[in-house]
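Hi, here's the filled form for the chain we discussed.

Project: internal
Contact: R.S.
Residues: 200
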Amino acid sequence: MNLLFDSIATGLAEQDFAITDQFLSQPEVEAIVALPEFQADRTSFKKAGISKQVQVKEEIRGDYIQWLDKATAPGAVTVYLKRLDDLIRYLNRNLFLSLKDVEAHFTVYPPGTFYKRHLDQFKQDDHRKLSVICYLNNDWKPEHGGELRLYLPGRTRDVLPEAGRLVCFRSDRIEHEVLPATRERLSITGWMLDKEKFLV
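And the returned structure, exactly as it came back:
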């Protein structure tokens, strides 16, 4: 796992983003996707909004989310959240980021939905330092679409949402968008914070 963490730290230090495969193994992905939250009718998911005031604007984003709580998260998700905590400690030691906690939610994009270009850090709240997205989509193919498009200096980088892949980037620097897909698109989306999650 240290090799994965090192590649993430190097990417963040050199280019403000990192992409690593097999952050979650195939069995770990399958254990999460098999949870009732993903297999049932998804009544626990809410339409995602924009800004801290949670304004729902379907012309900007079309995903559904369910926030995760470390204290009550299913075991399969706890494995992932603990790995993020380990990554926080590694990044703090090597990049001196002073990260303290993570907030995360399940994310479901129905076919054809998207999220237009944006930054993850709020204008009035700068505690989100790193964005972290782990994909849960088995057998994803380029023709399915649904790429994460990163807007980098002088270029863009499109990332397929393949199962087990983690994308990590600076929340305050890298604008990005989610392109429409022809099939349902699943992930755990989160942010590493420089404060404890439940502190005001």
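Let me know if anything looks off before we file it.
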